[in-house]
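Sequence in, structure out. Go.
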Amino acid sequence: MSPVSRISHLARLAVAALGLSALAVQSHAAEPLPPRNGFPSQTVKFISPFPPGGGNDATARLVTTRLPEIMGQAAVVDNRGGAGGNIGAKAVADAKPDGYTVLTSQVSIMAVNPSLYAQAGFDPIKNFIPITQINAAPLALVVDANSPLKSFADLAAKAKASPGKVTYATPGNGTLSHLVGVVLAKDKGVEMTHVPYKGAGPALTDLLGGQVDVLVTSTASVSGLVQNGKLRVLAVTSPRRIGVFAKVPTLEELGYAGARFEDWYGFFAPAGTPPERVAYLNEAIVRTLHLPEVTKLVTDGGSEVVANSSEAFAAQLRQDIERWSRIVKLSGARAD
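Output:
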């Protein structure tokens, strides 16, 4: 296998480990949810605002693999990458509010981008109705298994000795991954050069190809390659150790107080979607997330299932917008 083919193959494994491998585990029967007032009567499209190969895409596919058993209708993923997730988010904000177009989003898009970008193209509160939060997860700082950086202490020492010489890849400008680097540089003196990509998949490919030193991304994006021994995790950003990353130290354990970043994925409908359709989607998705094999895959990916109500998710979103808008302002970070 050529180096290029090997890298592409490994990138595909990152998706398979979380999403498509749902087909390979023993399935539990999914309890069907009868249509309500004729909904749904056609395919439901889930827009993932990043290219294939990252955590957003893998999480969307994890749910859509089993959701048709419950809804009785097909569910497909449509990747619309670009602008740190803004392009896909705007596509859903502008979509017909009939319940057939859903956004798979995350903290960086909904709580960070509106403050980071001069024109994000959407308002997370006015343009969307939260359906349910899928999970809560840390970010991971990972290197290729053959990297000379064996620990976060190695990374910090190299970055402090040669400020800006270490490169860190992220799924894009304004993502939570980007802000991890900003905070480490401004508050902790770990200064690295940011290399933004249009999603975790392309960033992962370049990490494995040796074009960048470190990747900061969701645990879901890299759990398969970590378990296969292709990547080494230096640290995670959660307040506690979790799942397959239980042996990996948190940044706070390493002495970086306040370096706590928890990501989440969740589903959103366009504003104006009938409440009964939002309620139907919530119940169907929550049932899917509570299937034992789906819960296991989420946990194995290094996160915890949340599967909450629309109202609880809306409250979480408002809280995160307040927190991250303040951090963006303090950091001085901007994206165009």
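Check: The chain is about 40% helix and 20% strand. The first strand starts at residue 44 and ends at 48.
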